[in-house]
């Protein structure tokens, strides 16, 4: 008998607003994405200098995970929380930046600290380091949020005992647009983990 | 829970355009790595395995054309076309498509590219492949650094097991570009000579380009003679560093342990290991630690990077396909370039191609972002 999975909580970061479940936690409409994320970092009193070395996709993912999971819980030594993330633009935000650094022979400055972020799964690595998640992880690309696939895949991880819980969702940064929708799939929660429910939560607020 | 079998397969590479030709070359210890002098890519010569554009076009131009395809799309289409045709599988809504790539059409960012920048989006690449063949289902694109190719197989296994699809075509590809070469060079990870995984005097990686594809199916009537079953798979993070391998091999160790547990196999039952072995100092050392922790020190092991270089998002699938043929031929392929062990823990590196009765193999990969994946395959 398969156990029922629930959406324990969810976090949106879009339109310069951070929300957890129904509640808006932080809003700052002045400035661009970089300024906004810096102000959110301060607002949530995160002390993690490595944050400032991350690219925009990793910063966005990091903030959403921080809001959803809280500051790292040191008592959870071996939290078997899988991470399944997805987006459309992959790492193109940083790919463009890196590409610019190698496009002009007279101004050629490839940097390993930029190049490493030219992979979408680096943001999974960043939150795995922060929350000590030595667990199942994968990054998928779709043309839009794909609740059907994410539901099937994360429930498979739960049903095959590969994971106890799953941090799942959509994190996309592309030129001037961005969006994060992360949620925690667990054995308890207010709403049942269905494709319809995920679609509904993704579209709200 | 349906079982999942790997069946018809293809490799498009500098060593040939079908799996049999490529495996024959490996069996003879022929490498596809050649010196490349191209100042457009790097200001000094480097070793790589490069697909001939003329050979690719010659094959591609024999196929029906729907729209203008990029180089990588051509590679993937040529590879996939052969196995779709051979399998005879009709592309209904029970047939999935999984695409594995790290950088996709990254060359379309170049100013002189004849393709618009929107082709650099991986979903655009997916749509091209989907529409070319008429897949009815949205492609699932796996982009998880250097573990993508083997992770795509683990994902496919899970989708088949849970009944999402009856058959899944998995295609993987990446190219040698200035983007990639300059990036690895900035890490000072690029070797000036053919790479030598696990060797004392190893000097870094080479990059290569291939497209590879396989049919994964639950249908035992659709098997090829080299078919294997995928019996376990796992992808665990190091949670240690985004570009440096873990000193304890934690993520790889966990991936292997979880895959073996799912396969219900003890380490001693593994016939051989198709390891990642990029020939960088830190990666190979990390693997040696992880394999020893997992009780696999005595299992014959190779890295195939000495034949193709590191083919990024394609490497895991490419190397799994060669593993299938290794099992079928009961042949352990030499870990090309290896001379003398240069890691701190014992490993049983395959020094020359040797016959051995084989029933199972373990495929592993590790990459940036602390990613690791392991999968176990068994003869049917």
TrEMBL record, chain A:
Lineage top rank: taxon: Bacteria
The protein's name in its UniProt record: 3-oxoacyl-ACP synthase
Species, as recorded: Pricia antarctica
Lineage: Bacteria, Pseudomonadati, Bacteroidota, Flavobacteriia, Flavobacteriales
TrEMBL record, chain B:
UniProt cross-references to SUPFAM superfamilies, sorted A to Z: Thiolase-like (SSF53901)
InterPro entries on file: Beta-ketoacyl_synthase, Ketoacyl_synth_C, Ketoacyl_synth_N, PKS_Beta-ketoAc_synthase_dom, Thiolase-like
Domain Ketosynthase family 3 (KS3): start-end pairs: 1-379
Keywords: Transferase
Protein name from the UniProt record: Ketosynthase family 3 (KS3) domain-containing protein
Record-stated family: Belongs to the thiolase-like superfamily. Beta-ketoacyl-ACP synthases family.
Gene Ontology MF term list: 3-oxoacyl-[acyl-carrier-protein] synthase activity
Gene Ontology BP, a term: fatty acid biosynthetic process
């Amino acid at each position: 008998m398969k156990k029922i999975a629930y959406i324990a909580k969810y976090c949106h970061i879009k339109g310069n607003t951070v929300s957890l479940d129904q509640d808006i936690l932080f809003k700052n409409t002045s400035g661009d994405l970089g300024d906004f994320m810096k102000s959110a970092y301060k607002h949530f009193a995160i002390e993690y200098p490595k944050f400032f070395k991350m690219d925009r996709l990793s910063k966005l993912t990091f903030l959403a995970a921080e809001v959803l999971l809280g500051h790292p819980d040191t008592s959870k030594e071996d939290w078997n929380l899988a991470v399944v993330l997805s987006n459309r633009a992959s790492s193109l935000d940083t790919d463009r930046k890196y590409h610019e650094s190698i496009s002009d022979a007279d101004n050629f400055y490839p940097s390993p600290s930029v190049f490493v972020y030219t992979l979408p799964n680096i943001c999974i690595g960043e939150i795995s380091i922060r929350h000590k998640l030595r667990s199942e992880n994968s990054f998928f690309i779709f043309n839009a949020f794909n609740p059907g696939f994410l539901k099937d895949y994360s429930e498979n991880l739960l049903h095959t005992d590969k994971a106890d819980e799953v941090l799942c969702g959509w994190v996309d940064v592309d030129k001037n647009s961005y969006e994060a929708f992360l949620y925690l799939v667990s054995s308890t929660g207010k709403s049942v983990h269905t494709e319809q429910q995920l679609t509904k939560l993704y579209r709200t607020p | 829970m349906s079982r999942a079998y790997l069946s018809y397969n293809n490799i498009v590479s500098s060593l040939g355009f079908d799996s049999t030709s490529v495996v024959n070359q490996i069996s003879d210890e022929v490498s596809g790595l050649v010196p490349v002098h191209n100042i457009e890519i790097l200001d000094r010569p480097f070793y790589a395995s490069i697909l001939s554009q003329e050979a690719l076009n010659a094959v591609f131009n024999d196929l029906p054309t729907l729209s203008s395809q990029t180089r990588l799309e051509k590679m993937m289409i040529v590879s996939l076309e052969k196995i779709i045709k051979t399998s005879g599988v009709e592309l209904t809504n029970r047939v999935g498509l999984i695409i594995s790539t790290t950088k996709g059409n990254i060359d379309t960012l170049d100013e002189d590219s004849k393709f618009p920048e929107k082709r650099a989006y991986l979903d655009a690449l997916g749509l091209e492949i989907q529409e070319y063949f008429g897949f009815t289902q949205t492609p699932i694109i796996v982009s998880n650094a250097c573990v993508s190719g083997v992770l795509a197989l683990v994902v496919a296994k899970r989708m088949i097991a849970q009944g999402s699809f009856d058959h899944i075509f998995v295609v993987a590809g990446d190219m040698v570009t200035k983007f990639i070469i300059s990036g690895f060079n900035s890490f000072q990870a690029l070797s000036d000579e053919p790479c030598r995984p696990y060797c004392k005097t190893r000097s870094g990686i080479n990059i290569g380009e291939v497209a590879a594809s396989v049919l994964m199916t639950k249908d035992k009537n659709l098997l090829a003679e080299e078919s294997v079953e995928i019996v376990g798979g796992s992808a665990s993070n190091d949670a240690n560093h985004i570009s440096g391998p873990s000193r304890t091999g934690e993520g790889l160790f966990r991936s292997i342990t979880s895959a073996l547990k799912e396969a219900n196999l003890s380490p001693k039952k593994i016939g051989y290991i198709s390891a990642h072995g990029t020939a960088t100092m830190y990666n190979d050392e990390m693997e040696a630690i992880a394999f020893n922790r997992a009780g696999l020190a005595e299992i014959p092991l190779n890295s195939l990077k000495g034949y193709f270089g590191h083919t990024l998002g394609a490497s895991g699938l490419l190397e799994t396909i060669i593993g299938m043929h290794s099992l079928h031929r009961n042949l352990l392929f030499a870990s090309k370039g290896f001379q003398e062990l240069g890691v701190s823990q014992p490993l049983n590196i395959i020094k020359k191609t040797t016959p051995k009765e084989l029933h199972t193999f373990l495929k592993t990969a590790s990459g940036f972002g602390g990613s690791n994946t392991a999968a176990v395959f068994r003869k049917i």
